[in-house]
Amino acid sequence: MVFDLDGTLVDSVADIHAATNRMLHEVALQPLDLATVRGFIGHGVPRLVAQVMETRAVTPARHDEMVRVFLRHYRAAPADLTDVIQDVPAALEELRREGHALGVCTNKPGELARAVLDRLGLACHFSAVLGGDEVPVAKPDPAPLIETVSRLGGGPAIYVGDSEVDADTARRADVPFLLYTEGYRKRPVEELPAAATFDSFAALPSLVRRVLKH
Fold first, then answer.
1. Are the C-beta atoms of 167 and 177 separated by less than 8 Å?
2. Angle at Cα 48 formed by Cα 66 and Cα 181, nearest 5°?
3. H or E element in which residue 104 lies
4. pLDDT for 93-135, tens place per residue?
5. Which of 4, 6, 15, 168 is an active site residue?
6. Known active-site residue 4
7. What is the mean pLDDT of the chain?
8. CATH entry 1.10.3470 includes domain 13-76
9. By three-state DSSP, how is residue 111 classified?
10. pTM for the full model?
């Protein structure tokens, strides 16, 4: 089984928002509100920074510079304001007891993904963690998910995520998708292709059993 990270296992928008505004402050630009930054999450840091730059009419020539500034601030505090989604640890433990190998496939840089998982006590659950900067392409290209499944040993897989990007990734990889409905998606639940949806991780283990059975 493979999971997305931001908006699925952890609520990280506050730390991403803080790093964004520290970046903007450093280059003498006005801050953005949390809802705006939340809408930029999902495609990885380079895309997020590009969208932030568009809102502040910054020349694209400064993109690499601003990505470096953002990452410096995010690395300094990757999980200070980030919370584990309720019931995630218990659900992961139950899935592992049932014999599932667990992995994370995220567009967040791998170094930051592992730092967040480690600091929040979740790293022990995962045999593979693949970040968006560790493969040539990012989600929704299916290659990162396919690679993560391969690192877990292959075989039947399920992808658990919270967004349009995750749904499209699973579809393109031909992997059943389970949608956590309380994350960072932008479109209505019914518009996202999913084998099933859930709003509490307490329900996930039984849902996984049901999906695998069919």
1. yes
2. 155
3. strand 103-105
4. 999 999 999 999 999 999 999 999 999 999 999 999 999 999 9
5. 4
6. yes
7. 97
8. no
9. helix
10. 0.96
